[in-house]
């Protein structure tokens, strides 16, 4: 805290010759001070203004001990990770979803044009479809859904769009097809499926043609079930998370019956018992924790390299090179955390 | 010389960063094959001739009670192609909706199968927020569509209430009794007061049908939906504090000490 002090009283110009009263008792005026030098314009330059506040002395922080410096760095990285994770799930994931859907739509459109769109669990060459392969187009105009379906329902597959569970037939084929979709992150394509009313109709386009479904109702786990499916019949179940966004409390089911012609069935190699647990509703995926470890290692090395470079080449150059690298490491790490969350999030 | 050294250090850092980023990016790149199949090592032979029996490959929904949720406890009549049980049977094996028995078909091709209708089901759960100048008021409009699949009209009671972010009840319950026409739907709208400044509001809708309808046992269903409401009083407060705070800070920080120099 700086304290302003009043300036001392001005000293007399000539203390040796004080003003003496004249004979009339009136004091004579002191001699005029010498005229200040004039500028080019003939005006005297203004004296500089006094500062409004006394300048604060520069703050000298005590140097941190190695333990304090390490703690500070760890806290900064942790906060960065939290913010990067939130930004990734809330904002970046939506953009990723849009981009992935565009690529999937292009690929699936080409397959439809070539007549090679999958109609079973294998592609036209007989190889098993890998996760994230496009298998259909889902259109639910009542809730604004127009998405490309992908094969597989684990957390990574559902980043691209609604997923078709591998152990169930494709929509329109005999049996009960199951589609899982996220409720909040990565576009949240199934965030409004509870708004579907009984009787609402929507379509699914696969390699065999377009199938039309009619909503039976919305169901929660433990609720009474729809009538058993007739032999040769087809039904579709949409599944997503319910509860507040990013905080699911359960699974919501939307049952829909097929109202168009039943299509030919396709072979399925995966059964319910052989379905990986990571592909079930609200499951987490720990199969790629190694990627998270690699990302964390990358982040640690980038951080240490930035600290080292700051001492060697200076702050500006380190920021120029280090900030994008550390940012990339943080985002990669945040991306690898997502599979550890429920797949319907 | 120092400049050369700096460049070498920066180049080494960039190479190291890219080398370490590669494994982490590999996981994402593994999902990028959009051509289906690719070089996936598993190869299968498609043997299907189009006559796959319904549900033959799923193994789900045949009374497991898991996954699909089909076949709740005791639903012995469930399973694909084994007839139809009434929606709302809740474990009653005798609750058969014979009136809506499906046509059934042995063939899987070119067959338009009429599936049994649900005796009682819900859907169309929508929420809306009605703003109020009273900060402790505000209306949550709830809407639910009730479906009656039986041949007789069905009186139902719809009860709505809402809870806050901590599960605390903040409004309702509000009850309304309606009659759903036979083989028809009815949309029921119930406004619930008391949203106030609770930002995360969960609406609960409980629909109670008669104990049985058309020989089918029915049970009440509860649905819930969450809505995020902007707490306008808090937002206005922030704006006011920010709007007043800035000039206030300028006023407080005015250089009064200048008078000492005058």
Provide keyphrases for this structure.
heterodimer; A: 345 residues; alpha+beta; eight-stranded mixed beta barrel; B: 262 residues; Immunoglobulin-like; three-stranded antiparallel sheet; 3 helices; 28% strand
Task: Walk me through this protein's architecture.
By secondary structure, chain A is of the alpha+beta class. Chain A has a domain at 87-110 and 128-264 and 273-279: Beta Barrel (Sortase, Chain: A), CATH 2.40.260.10. Chain A has four helices and eight strands; from the N terminus they run H-E-E-H-E-E-E-E-E-E-H-H. Chain A has an eight-stranded mixed barrel. In chain A, helix 1 (66-114) crosses helix 4 (315-337) and helix 3 (289-313) runs antiparallel to helix 4. With 262 residues, chain B is an alpha+beta fold. Helices cover 20% and strands 28% of the residues of chain B. Chain B is rod-shaped, with a radius of gyration of 32 Å. The chains are: A alpha+beta (345), B alpha+beta (262).
Helical proportion of chain B?
Answer: 10-25%
How large is the count of helical segments of chain B? 3
What's the rounded overall pLDDT mean of chain A?
85
The rounded distance between the terminal residues' Cα atoms of chain A is 52 Å
Assembly level: heterodimer
CATH class of the domain at 120-234 in chain B: Mainly Beta
CATH class of the domain at 87-110 and 128-264 and 273-279 in chain A: Mainly Beta
Spatial order of the strands in the main sheet of chain A? Answer: 1-2-3-4-7-8-6-5
| Mean residue pLDDT of chain B | 65
Looking across the biggest beta sheet of chain B, what order are the strands in?
A: 4-3-6-9
CATH superfamily of the domain at 120-234 in chain B: Immunoglobulins
Could you give the count of β-strands of chain B?
Answer: 9
Biggest sheet statistics of chain B: 4 strands, antiparallel
The biggest beta sheet of chain A reads: 8 strands, mixed, barrel
Globally, the shape of chain A reads elongated
User: What's the alpha carbon Rg of chain B, rounded to whole Å?
Assistant: 32 Å
**Remind me, CATH topology of the domain at 120-234 in chain B?**
Immunoglobulin-like
């Amino acid at each position: 805290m700086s304290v302003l002090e009043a300036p001392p009283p001005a000293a007399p110009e000539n203390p040796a010759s004080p003003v003496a009263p004249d004979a009339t008792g009136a004091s004579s005026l002191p001699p005029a001070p010498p005229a200040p030098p004039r500028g080019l314009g003939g005006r005297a330059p203004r004296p500089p203004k006094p500062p409004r506040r006394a300048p604060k002395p520069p703050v000298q922080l005590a140097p941190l001990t190695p333990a304090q410096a390490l703690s500070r760095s760890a806290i900064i990285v942790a906060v960065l990770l939290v913010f990067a994770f939130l930004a990734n799930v809330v904002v970046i994931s939506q953009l990723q979803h849009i981009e992935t859907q565009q690529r999937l739509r292009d690929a699936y459109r080409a397959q439809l044009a070539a007549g090679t769109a999958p109609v079973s669990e294998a592609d036209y060459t007989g190889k098993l479809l890998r996760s994230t392969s496009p298998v259909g187009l889902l259109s639910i105009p009542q809730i604004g859904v127009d998405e490309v379906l992908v094969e597989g329902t684990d957390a990574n597959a559902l980043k691209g769009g609604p997923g078709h569970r591998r152990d169930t037939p494709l929509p329109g084929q005999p049996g009960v097809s199951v589609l899982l979709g996220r409720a909040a992150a990565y576009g949240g394509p199934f965030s409004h499926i509870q708004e579907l009313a009984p009787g609402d109709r929507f379509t699914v386009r696969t390699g065999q043609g377009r199938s039309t479904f009619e909503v039976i109702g919305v169901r929660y786990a433990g609720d009474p079930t729809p009538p058993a499916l007739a032999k040769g019949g087809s039904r579709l179940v949409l599944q997503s998370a319910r509860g507040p966004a990013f905080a699911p409390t359960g699974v919501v089911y939307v049952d829909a019956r097929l109202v168009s012609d039943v299509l030919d069935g396709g072979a399925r190699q995966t059964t319910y018992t052989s379905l990986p647990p990571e592909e079930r509703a609200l499951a987490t995926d720990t199969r790629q924790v190694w990627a998270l470890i690699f990302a964390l290692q990358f982040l640690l090395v980038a951080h240490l390299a930035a600290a080292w470079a700051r001492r060697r080449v200076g702050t500006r150059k380190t920021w120029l090179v280090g900030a994008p690298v550390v940012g990339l490491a943080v985002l990669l790490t945040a991306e690898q955390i997502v599979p550890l969350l429920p797949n319907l999030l | 010389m120092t400049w050369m050294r700096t460049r070498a250090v920066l180049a080494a850092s960039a190479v190291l960063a890219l080398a370490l980023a590669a494994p982490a990016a590999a996981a994402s790149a593994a999902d990028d094959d959009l051509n289906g199949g690719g070089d996936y090592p598993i190869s299968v032979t498609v043997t299907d001739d189009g006559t796959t029996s319904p549900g033959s490959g799923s193994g789900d929904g045949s009374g497991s009670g898991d996954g699909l949720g089909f076949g709740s406890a005791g639903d012995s009549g469930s399973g694909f192609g084994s007839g139809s049980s009434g929606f709302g049977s809740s474990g009653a094996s005798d609750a058969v909706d014979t009136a809506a028995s499906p046509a059934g078909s042995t063939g899987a091709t070119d067959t338009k199968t009429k599936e049994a209708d649900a005796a009682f089901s819900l859907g169309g759960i929508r929420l809306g927020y009605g703003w109020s100048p009273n900060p402790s008021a505000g209306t949550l409009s709830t809407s639910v569509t009730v479906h009656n699949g039986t041949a007789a009209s069905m009186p139902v009671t719809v009860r709505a209430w809402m809870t806050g972010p901590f599960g605390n009840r903040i409004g309702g319950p509000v009850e309304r009794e309606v009659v759903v026409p036979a083989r028809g739907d009815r949309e029921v709208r119930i406004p619930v007061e008391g949203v106030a400044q609770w930002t995360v509001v969960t609406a609960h809708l409980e629909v109670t049908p008669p104990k049985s309808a058309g020989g089918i046992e029915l049970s009440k269903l509860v649905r819930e939906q969450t809505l995020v409401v902007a707490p306008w009083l808090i937002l206005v407060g922030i704006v006011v504090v920010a709007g007043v705070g800035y000039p206030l800070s300028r006023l407080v920080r005015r250089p009064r000490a200048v008078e000492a120099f005058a």
